[in-house]
Design goal:
45% helix, Beta-Lactamase
Length: 580
């Protein structure tokens, strides 16, 4: 099982994996040839391995007692491949040589087509239960031996009433000890007569099934404790037990008194009296929690498979340089079908300029070398165009051999957006640097300068470091008017200011013309201003004004002189006419 496991789906996958890792039961998986692909910590401990990874790749036969190998190969595995699952008692052999009694539920994990993919196993350590069963059997054997001997002894001494009473007392004592032992067991212990009616059950049996001793006195038949669909099988097995046939325990769906269901593992033995079957005694182990764990594991596998198949990223497995698995998204990225990827060299889908480096990464990762968690690669679309992707990989065991698990994310749109942004920034930088007027950007709230071009630094006489420590108020000679203009610009009411007076580092005040606008830079609102020094223009305007005034004065003086000249001429003419 791979640890794949961001987002809600990633979180769900993590929870399911933690469930398996924290389980008190051994959980394991193997490929169809029997080589281990996953063990949880509990199973790792039972195997005697130091780490779960140490068990990967070993054959399951390594961990089975020699006397159970034949049952594994001839009974359990054929049943699993035929029926989908098999539960049996097997002695688990650790690498240290220790044997652990277990109940193992072996079942197949299939793909959506119903084809088997893996063997899965839920393993319950029943060492303590086996000790109790052995003790119980030994006690039963002793009881049966004692009972048989007492019968023989009683028949031989029928005439000795006192001795018979002693034997009867011994039997009662033996029965008392059996009852006391049964009451201590954490499983349901019971006895049935030949008709299947309960004659005894221990405290745990009452607790599990909800019946009382009064119910037993009134009469409770064993079939009442089984789901209707199980009753025919129960009757057949009881008859087989009464006939003396030996077989292992079975799992049943059972019913409590209140109608609720539980999963029970039932093991029985016949009660023989005077050589004849007198009933059945046995134990019931509540395995509901174990069955729920098995179901949770199956659901986890289904969810894991669904997660991979529906993932937004491409997921593939590469082994021997070719794709062995690809999810639908991996095929869609390049406009291929899954079938077109399987068993094809992964290099067929890599940009030619990056094949060598990609192959090098693949070989180094398979060798176990440390590589970047993720890196960018150019891939080939079916049409031939380039796909920009982000790739992450990791080594896994696939079909008992080393393989490379890769996750591919299509970042073509992001790369195109980054390229467009880079080009835009280059154009902005070129414009910002080459514009002849002073260009500056400042924070709308703090009024502190964020950037300024070289023209602004030259105009105001500051270095870049000095300028970026200034506020707008440090360069304006009209504080209140400046604040009003900023507020109007932020409100969208003002974009051009024909005349303002600014001051340089040396204190010199000079006229400027300003064009302003506002925009957002991340979370902050900023203003940018294009400031033009109009000192020469104002000087030219002033000179023109003065020149016009001088011209008006000159014109006025000229007219007066002409009037005087005309008067002199008129008098001269008058005087000349008078003389004549």
């Amino acid at each position: 099982m791979s640890h794949i496991g961001q987002g809600p789906q990633e979180e769900q996958k993590t929870i399911l994996l933690r469930f398996a890792e924290a389980s008190g039961q051994g959980l394991g998986m193997a490929d169809l040839e029997g080589y281990v692909t996953y063990v949880n910590p509990t199973l790792c401990r039972l195997m005697g391995e130091e780490r779960p990874e140490d068990a990967i790749g070993k054959h399951v036969r390594t961990f089975v007692a020699e006397e159970d190998l034949s049952m594994l190969e001839n009974e359990i595995l054929p049943a699993v491949f035929a029926d989908g699952q098999k539960t049996a008692e097997i002695s688990l052999l650790s690498i240290k040589g220790d044997l652990t009694s277990t109940i193992q539920n072996v079942f197949l994990i299939r793909n959506d087509k119903g084809e088997p993919l893996y063997l899965a196993n839920v393993i319950t350590d029943i060492t303590d239960r086996k000790r109790v069963e052995v003790a119980l059997r030994e006690n039963m054997d002793r009881l049966q031996i004692a009972y048989g001997q007492s019968i023989v002894f009683a028949e031989q001494l029928t005439e000795e009433i006192s001795e018979r009473k002693q034997v009867e007392e011994a039997l009662r004592e033996s029965e008392r000890r059996f009852r006391e032992l049964a009451e201590l067991l954490p499983v349901s212990v019971f006895e049935l007569d030949v008709n299947g009616n309960f004659t005894y059950t221990n405290r745990c049996g009452f607790e599990i099934f909800g019946y009382t001793s009064e119910d037993l006195r009134k009469g409770v038949n064993a079939l009442q404790l089984f789901a209707p669909e199980e009753r025919q099988r129960v009757e057949q097995n009881i008859r087989k037990r009464l006939a003396g046939k030996e077989f292992q325990g079975h799992e049943y769906t059972m019913l409590k008194k209140d109608g609720s269901m539980l999963c029970g593992f039932l093991s029985t033995a016949p009660i023989i009296r005077n050589g004849n079957p007198a009933g059945v005694r046995g134990i019931v182990v509540d395995i509901t929690d174990r069955k729920r764990a098995e179901e949770a594991l199956r659901e986890s596998e289904d969810k894991y498979r669904s997660l991979v198949e529906r993932a937004n990223d491409g997921i593939g497995i590469v082994q021997d340089g070719v794709f062995k698995y690809a999810n639908p998204r991996l095929a869609v990225i390049g406009d291929y079908t899954v079938e077109e990827l399987i068993d094809k060299p992964f290099t067929d889908f890599v940009h030619p300029h990056e094949v060598a480096e990609t192959v090098d990464y693949y070989k180094r990762r398979i060798r176990g070398e440390e590589l970047p968690v993720s890196y960018e690669r150019r891939l080939l679309h079916k049409s031939g165009r380039t796909i920009h992707s982000e790739v992450s990989g990791g080594v896994i065991a696939y079909q008992n051999r080393t393989a490379d698990l890769i996750v591919v994310r299509d970042i073509t749109d992001r790369k195109q957006a980054e390229e467009a942004l880079r080009e835009s920034e280059e154009r902005y930088s070129q414009l910002f640097a080459t514009v002849p007027d002073a260009f500056m950007i400042f924070d709308a709230e703090t009024r502190r300068f964020l950037d300024a071009n070289a023209s602004a630094l030259r105009l105001y006489g500051y270095t870049e470091e000095e300028f970026l420590n200034l506020r707008l108020s440090d360069i304006t000679a009209e504080g209140k008017a400046c604040d009003t203009s900023v507020e109007q610009t932020l409100a969208g009411e003002l974009t051009r200011i024909p005349l303002r007076y600014h001051k340089k580092k040396d204190g010199a005040v000079f006229p400027v013309e300003i064009s302003a606008s506002t925009f957002r830079l991340g979370a902050r609102r900023v203003l940018c201003g294009l400031v033009r020094d109009i000192t020469r223009r104002k000087q030219a305007e002033e000179a023109l004004k003065q020149s016009r005034e001088e011209l008006r004065d000159l014109a006025s003086h000229s007219e007066l002189a002409r009037e005087r000249q005309r008067g002199l001429i008129a008098r001269e003419i008058h005087d000349e006419l008078a003389r004549r």
